[in-house]
Amino acid sequence: MDQKRSRTFSGVKPTGHLTLGNYLGAVRRWVEADQHRSDALFSVVDLHALTVEHDPARLRRLSRQAATLLLAAGLDPALCTVYVQSHVDEHARLSYLLECTATDGELRRMIQYKEKSVRARAAGDGVRLSLLTYPVLMAADILAYATDDVPVGEDQRQHVELARDLALRFNQRYGHTFTVPRATHPAVAARVMDLQDPMSKMGKSHENGSGIVYLLDEPDVVRKKVMRAVTDSGTEVVYDREARPGVANLLDILAAATDRAPAELAGEYSAYGALKRDTAEAVVELLRPVRERHAELAADPGYVDRVLREGAERARGMARPVVDRAYRAIGLLPAA
Ligand code: AQP
Question: 194-220, pLDDT tens digit by residue?
Fold first, then answer.
């Protein structure tokens, strides 16, 4: 008997240029595994980029660039659905119902809210209400597609947990409506750290880019950033994320780029210099085809537009019945 293919949803927010962290933690698995083995949707989640100070023209540019990079990395519109979140109204439609399911307390506990609200206040900016509520929108992104698997980096674990909790609560109160999703993480490099500050995640919206490898960085820029990575005091190459976070981060990156195990690689190096050199070259080679394909696709914006238009149509068709079902279940009168 035919088994139903599982459903995958994940996304990337256009708050900056995509990074090596996005690639190793998420995008590469979408390309190599998820789009082949499941019914998969990948979205440029642009509404999430509105939760902090933003420039409209830059947001438009970054949204297009992110979509182009997803295709350049190897997402194939014949295998999966690639689209922009704001092109599909169902996300925002469902989000409100989930706001009526979530509690103020559970949103205030979100680590990203705590960290980013401190940052916004320190910069003298107001804290947008959407910074508090966007994990509910993310839950809507996931639940609208009856998603089984959410392939994400480690930093998104808490948000996917919230989506699970909301699905279970809604189902319990109003009858079975949503599939309960689960997060999946890569075995290695689920949390790539900033090369200049190995205690912080490599994040695309961070202001100082010297510890961040962007997917579109030129090879020499990648080499420079990796060679200047902060390592730990000591000279021995050992894999210990707690005691030697800088070296462990390089080992994670090299391991992910070469499909090896970080602890095993550690045994092959006796000095930081050689480890940095090999890591730099491995990253340059890993990103080379993505950069090259991006240049080709960026020269053909009509193709990217078409993919996004068709993707949004497909996505709408998948989300609408689920969201309509939720509207009925919660007690809203169907339009005659
Ligand atoms: N450093 C990382 N290591 C592993 N995975 C990562 N991801 C992000 N950074 C790393 C994963 O990439 C997917 C898309 O991420 P995102 O666009 O939601 O977040 P971001 O790149 O971290 O962007 P920001 O704006 O800089 O976010 P904050 O401010 O939250 O750091 C996700 O699957 C994510 O896990």
Answer: 999 999 999 998 888 999 999 999 999
Task: Please indicate whether residue 4 is annotated as part of the active site.
Answer: no
Cα 146 to averaged position of ligand 1 atoms, centre (Å):
23
Question: Ligand 1 pocket, 43 CB below 6 A?
Answer: no
Decide if 204 is catalytic.
yes
Domains of the chain: 7-185+301-330 (3.40.50.620), 219-296 (1.10.240.10)
Whether pTM > 0.90 for this model: the answer is: yes
Query: What is the tens place of the pLDDT at every residue in 73-91?
Result: 999 999 999 999 999 999 9
Ligand 1 pocket check for 18: Cβ under 6 Å: no
| 26 within ligand 1 shell (Cβ under 6 A) | yes
Q: Mapped to the 3 state alphabet, what secondary structure does the chain carry?
A: CCCCCCEEEEEECCCCCCEHHHHHHHHHHHHHHHHHHCEEEEEECHHHHHHCCCCHHHHHHHHHHHHHHHHHHCCCCCCCEEEEHHHCCHHHHHHHHHHCCCCHHHHHCCHHHHHHHHHHHHCCCCCCHHHHHHHHHHHHHHHCCCCCEEECCHHHHHHHHHHHHHHHHHHHHHCCCCCCCEEECCCCCCCCECCCCCCCECCCCCCCHHHCCECCCCHHHHHHHHHCCCCCCCCCCCCCCCCCHHHHHHHHHHHHHHCCCHHHHHCCCCCHHHHHHHHHHHHHHHHHHHHHHHHHHHCCHHHHHHHHHHHHHHHHHHHHHHHHHHHHHHCCCCCC
